[in-house]
Design goal:
The complex is a heterodimer of chains A (about 325) and B (about 425). Chain A is an alpha/beta fold. Chain A contains 12 helices and 12 strands. In chain A, strand 5, helix 7 and strand 6 form a beta-alpha-beta unit. The longest helix of chain A has 15 residues. Chain B is an alpha/beta fold. The chains are: A alpha/beta (about 325), B alpha/beta (about 425). Chains A and B meet through helix 3, helix 4 and helix 5 of A and helix 5 and helix 6 of B.
């Protein structure tokens, strides 16, 4: 089976959906001739033509707004916002228009579109290329929010997202575009080719939205993570010798609560991990849900690992990023109680 | 700022911020003598394929067709047949009667909110006449005339206003925020300006698919300051989108006059040419001029010559909405002084002058429209009004958030129905 890194898998997903459905249209800043700054759309314009894949002005509000009109026409826009940090000028269109169109028109108009965007830090992107704004979108009724952590999932989830009747915000962990990350900043990222989840089949397959993946089975602790932090969490539980069950949420909204609940009731402990700033992050929602549903099964308070409540720094990202030390301390605390 | 200015600037004049003010405030005598009204028929009519920059002179004047006697003059006269003109007059009268009835309904407590378009009826009605019936409209809340002109049932409009059992939007939208796909009327948003890039996107999609339909979007003068206005113009220009972008300059954005949106410095139509878009500035109270300009832009778009921005210059004769009190910020009676007159009266005068209409027929038209609106209102109110809406569809509140209801919404629906049971003392669905 061919191996692909995450960018190649995402690129392949584009080709699959564009070949299958002539109504899928790809546009965004630099996505056309050049193929995107991360190369996610490389070759699409050459293969499918300028009417199906084209560059957009630097106007995220315009990109999303135009996508609304295209979806209203009957196309399926698959758009790229170059960095998640740039999504805010398009936020009104996403939140007020895309998310609510089905609801406010009682199903007369729907917005089957995918808004892709690289998110997260660890690439020396400073405070304008490193944010993790997923919680801003999980707070919005009508959106689905998907974050893959492997090339296999990235392709399968992206195809599922395009085929989904609802709008999907698809955040891509750019830290692991080229390889999995163990959270140690002084170690280079490994290539995906050495990882089993880089075996990405050719052609069409889907990974269903709303279904989490148990990455590692365990008895003593449930770790909930997504995106880059799945890899950080996995490395941390193994380095610390903890028999933890690590769950990759894959879809934050709607959440696979059944899988989480079953795991936490089995292990009696839970640690939630996010890269985003701590306060009001998605980890807070996860901790609350676990507390509401599994309280009498818990042996210890739900632990939380997150980025600091500062903008993302350029020079000190090694101490901003939730890495092995923060993970170790949190694991020790949740296991000691 | 606690630091004193540097000594070497002691003699520099202090800067001051310019905050535009309208010429007249409550208590003043309104006087629109500063409004330049060019003679009807004076504006040239370029070829619909003319380069955008050649339209620049047309963004500083007003395209006008009807003169003071109601005669059509000049190159923009669309030479419409009397039946089309009478249909436009009927639709405009119907809109005005409808507005008056719904305004009263709001004052009677039958609904929460209403917005009239008094004085602006020609802008939607004549545009509807100039477009093909399957062209797509992305309106604001003051284009109810599009629905009326396209034959959308008045009862259905009212049911939406009453959020009653007949409201196809299930009580989810503010009154007047209609939506109807079969009539090419896109869902209205309260977030201003959002529909502008959407209209461009729809037009781009039509071009991508090799369709022949075009799109038209509307925005108010105030909302031209939104980023969406500028992104829409950029996208429309870049992709030569087959779209018409209308700016309805009715002089007032709630209580802020058009100067607060930049009208002191440049006309809204002026802005088109900087983007490489054709621009027209049109007498919005002249139904024939509105028709002619919109038709020109539609032909231009359909021939792949690209977008047009049209500023419809008009006056919001009533308050912004039923929640507004315009006497708090502008002189009473200002609307009567508006130099471009009343669009219905002007079209009526034209038809009478052409021997195609008379006062008696007009009185009959008003009477018939009134009866039609009253009958529609009766039918709508039979299906309920906002204060006594039915309680049998509470569960529908949780539908259409997603195509399928996820677990968390199903749980919340059950909780809501549990609350309803306590409120009502019986089960609801």
């Amino acid at each position: 089976m061919p191996t692909r890194n995450m960018i190649e898998a995402i690129n392949d997903a584009h080709k699959v959906v564009m070949a299958a459905d002539p109504d899928v249209v790809v546009f965004g800043e630099d996505v056309g001739y050049f193929g995107g700054v991360f190369r996610a759309t490389a070759g699409l314009q050459a293969e499918f033509g300028k009417q199906r894949c084209f560059d957009a002005p630097i106007s995220e509000g315009g990109i999303v707004g135009a996508a609304v009109g295209m979806a209203a026409y009957g196309l399926k826009p698959l758009i790229e916002i170059q960095f998640a940090d740039y999504i805010y000028p398009g936020y009104d269109q996403i939140v007020s228009e895309v998310a609510r169109m089905r609801y406010r028109t009682a199903g007369e108009w729907t917005m089957p579109m995918v808004i892709r965007s690289p998110y997260g830090g660890g690439i020396f992107g400073g405070q304008t290329h490193s944010q993790s704004p997923e919680a801003l979108f999980t707070h919005v009724a009508g959106l689905k929010v998907v974050i893959p952590s492997t090339p296999y999932d990235a392709k399968g989830l992206l195809i599922a997202a395009v085929e989904d009747p609802d709008p999907v915000v698809f955040f891509e962990p750019k830290r692991i575009y080229n390889g999995p990350f163990d959270g140690h900043h002084d170690r280079p990222v490994k290539p995906w080719s050495k990882h089993p989840d880089s075996e990405v089949p050719d052609g069409h397959y889907t990974v269903p939205l709303g279904k989490a993946r148990i990455v590692r089975e365990g008895q003593d602790l449930t770790v909930l993570a997504y995106g880059t932090m799945v890899h950080v969490a996995l490395a941390a539980v193994e380095e610390n010798g903890i028999d933890a069950e690590v769950i990759d949420l894959r879809t934050l909204l709607p959440l696979d609560m059944a899988t989480i609940e079953e795991s936490v009731k089995k292990t009696g402990r839970c640690l939630v991990v996010q890269e985003a700033t701590k306060t009001s992050g998605f980890a807070a929602e996860l901790a609350t849900l676990v507390q509401e549903r599994c309280f009498y099964h818990l042996e210890a308070p739900v632990g939380r690992v997150a980025g600091w409540d500062t903008p993302y720094p350029h020079a000190y990202e090694w101490i901003y990023f939730p890495g092995p030390i923060r993970m170790k301390q949190a694991l020790e605390k949740v296991m000691a109680d | 700022m606690s630091e004193a200015p540097p000594t070497d600037r002691r003699n520099a004049p202090a800067l001051s911020l310019h905050v535009p003010e309208p010429d007249y405030r409550p208590g003043d005598t309104p006087d629109f003598s500063k409004v330049v009204v060019p003679a009807a028929g004076a504006a040239p009519r370029p070829d619909t394929g003319a380069p955008a920059r050649e339209t620049f002179p047309l963004t500083d004047t007003l395209v006008r067709v009807l003169d003071d006697q109601g005669r059509p003059v000049g190159p923009w006269d669309p030479r419409l047949d009397p039946d089309t003109l009478r249909k436009m007059l009927k639709d405009m009268v119907t809109v005005r009667v409808f507005d008056d009835r719904m305004y009263r309904a709001q004052r009677q407590g039958k609904t929460s909110f209403y917005m009239k378009c008094t004085g602006e009826e020609a802008i939607a009605v004549a545009a509807a006449a100039a477009l093909a019936s399957d062209d797509m409209c992305f309106p604001t809340y003051r284009q109810q005339g599009l629905l009326v002109a396209r034959g959308y049932p008045l009862t259905d409009m009212m049911c939406q206003i009453y959020s009653n059992a007949g409201d196809k939007l299930h009580g989810r939208q503010l009154p007047i925020m209609y939506s109807d796909k079969p009539h090419g009327f896109f869902s209205i948003s309260g977030n201003l300006g959002t529909q502008y890039p959407q209209a461009v996107g729809w037009a781009m999609a039509s071009a991508i698919k090799g369709d022949s339909r075009i799109a038209m979007g509307w925005i108010g003068d105030g909302a031209t300051a939104e980023g969406d206005f500028h992104s829409a113009l950029t996208f429309a220009a870049v992709y030569t989108a087959p779209v018409i972008l209308a700016v309805v300059n009715n002089q007032w954005a709630i209580s802020s006059f058009s100067g607060i949106a930049g009208a002191e410095k440049a006309t809204f139509a002026n802005r088109a040419v900087g983007y490489g878009i054709a621009g027209l500035r049109v007498d919005g109270n002249d139904a024939l001029a509105v028709y002619a300009a919109t038709r020109w832009a539609a032909e231009r778009a359909r021939a792949n010559h690209g977008p047009t921005l049209i500023e419809y210059f008009t006056y919001r004769a009533e308050g912004h909405s039923t929640s507004d009190d315009p006497t708090g910020y502008r002189p009473a009676g200002e609307a009567q002084q508006w130099p471009l007159g009343d669009p219905i009266e002007r079209l009526k005068a034209h038809l009478i002058g052409a021997g195609e209409w008379d006062e008696e027929r007009h009185a009959d038209l008003v009477k018939t429209a009134d009866a039609e609106v009253r009958a529609a209102q009766k039918q709508a109110e039979a299906q309920g009004i906002l204060p006594d809406q039915g309680f049998d569809r509470i569960g529908s509140m949780f539908e259409d958030v997603y195509a399928d209801t996820p677990w968390h919404l199903a749980e919340q629906r059950d909780a809501a129905l549990g609350e309803a049971r306590i409120y009502l003392g019986r089960d609801a669905s």
